[in-house]
């Protein structure tokens, strides 16, 4: 009797462990490495898009023509498409909370590129900000969750119909309608946060949709009743993703026509990342697998990245370097 009870207890424990493993599947090391590599390359490509598009807009204004006729603007647009495809591949391999913050690597890369193509300033504090952004990204990689909380189409459908997530999407939609139809026409060209808010709020649709398409696509080609549901879900998510990208694309170019590309890219990264992580936390619950130490590590990493971005942008107009600092120290002595 005792041995049977012990065997039953062990069987129950094993079943619970298996269920937990199914609910939080850990990607293979090769998949994680591939996803990280694609995410890093995509962030660098995305970091160049705003600079190239801004350069094309400036060239077109100088000639008095539309930026749609400029080859540099189209190069930036194609780079944006390539970067988004890379993000799509990365989201299917590793958790969203790991891929999205890595976009920070595109900010220092874009600032360095802008200093050459657009002659925007990058002083010693800007270079220090680039270093901090890269260091913070490494910290984020180390402490990010390594397991997936949503791994099947059924789990995805359950999460999408969760009242909390539906309520969040309704709030986002109301804010977008208010910004697009009332606030943007009046204050968009003079307040950079209007366009940034529109593009960042749309991230609440683009990133979860991209992640969901990757999950639904796994069941489309299976010969079972769920394949039709998976196809319908995939088409709906594709439509949402397409509409979101088109609107984002329009307001990104509106912002680049009015504001500095580096300033826009930096603020956009912080706001976009924050809102995407919020949407992913509500939908995918990836934070449920993160311990206290890793949570604090990710918070410190994100703070380090944000401070680095502030140093790149806020102090870019300060004209000083290490040589001038050494001269002032000699005079003081």
Automatic annotation (TrEMBL):
The keyword Magnesium does not apply. Signal peptide: none annotated. InterPro entries: EmrE-like (IPR037185), Mg_trans_NIPA (IPR008521). Its main location: membrane. Keywords: Membrane, Transmembrane, Transmembrane helix. The chain crosses the membrane at residues 30-51, 71-91, 97-118, 125-145, 165-185, 230-251, 263-283, 295-315. It is found in: Membrane. This is NIPA magnesium transporter 1. It comes from Capra hircus. The lineage of its organism: Eukaryota, Metazoa, Chordata, Craniata, Vertebrata.
């Amino acid at each position: 009797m005792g041995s049977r009870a012990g065997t039953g207890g062990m069987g129950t424990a094993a079943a619970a462990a298996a269920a937990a493993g199914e609910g939080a599947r850990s990607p293979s090391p090769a998949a994680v490495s591939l996803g990280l590599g694609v995410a890093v390359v995509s962030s660098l490509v995305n970091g160049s898009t705003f600079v190239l598009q801004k350069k094309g807009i400036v060239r077109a204004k100088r000639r008095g023509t539309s930026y749609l006729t400029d080859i540099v603007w189209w190069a930036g647009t194609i780079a944006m498409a390539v970067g988004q495809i890379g993000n799509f591949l990365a989201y299917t391999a590793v958790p969203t909370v790991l891929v999205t913050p890595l976009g920070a690597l595109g900010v220092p890369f874009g600032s360095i590129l802008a200093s050459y193509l657009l002659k925007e300033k990058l002083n010693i504090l800007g270079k220090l900000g680039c270093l901090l952004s890269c260091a913070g990204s490494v910290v984020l990689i180390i402490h990010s969750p390594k397991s997936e909380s949503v791994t099947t189409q059924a789990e995805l459908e359950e999460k999408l119909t969760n009242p909390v997530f539906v309520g969040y999407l309704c709030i986002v939609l109301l804010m977008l309608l208010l910004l697009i139809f009332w606030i943007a026409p009046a204050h968009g060209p003079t307040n950079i946060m209007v366009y940034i808010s529109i593009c960042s709020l749309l991230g609440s649709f683009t990133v979860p949709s991209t992640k969901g398409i990757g999950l639904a696509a796994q069941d489309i080609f299976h010969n079972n009743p769920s394949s039709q549901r998976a196809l319908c879900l995939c088409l709906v998510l594709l439509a949402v993703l397409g509409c979101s990208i088109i609107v984002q694309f329009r307001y990104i170019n509106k912002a680049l026509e009015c504001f500095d590309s580096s300033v826009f890219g930096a603020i956009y990264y912080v706001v976009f990342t924050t809102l995407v992580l919020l949407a992913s936390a509500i939908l995918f619950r990836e934070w449920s697998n993160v311990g206290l130490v890793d949570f604090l590590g990710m918070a410190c990493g994100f703070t380090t990245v944000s401070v680095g971005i502030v140093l790149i942008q806020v102090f870019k107009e300060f004209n000083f370097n290490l040589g001038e600092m050494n001269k002032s120290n000699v005079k003081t002595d």
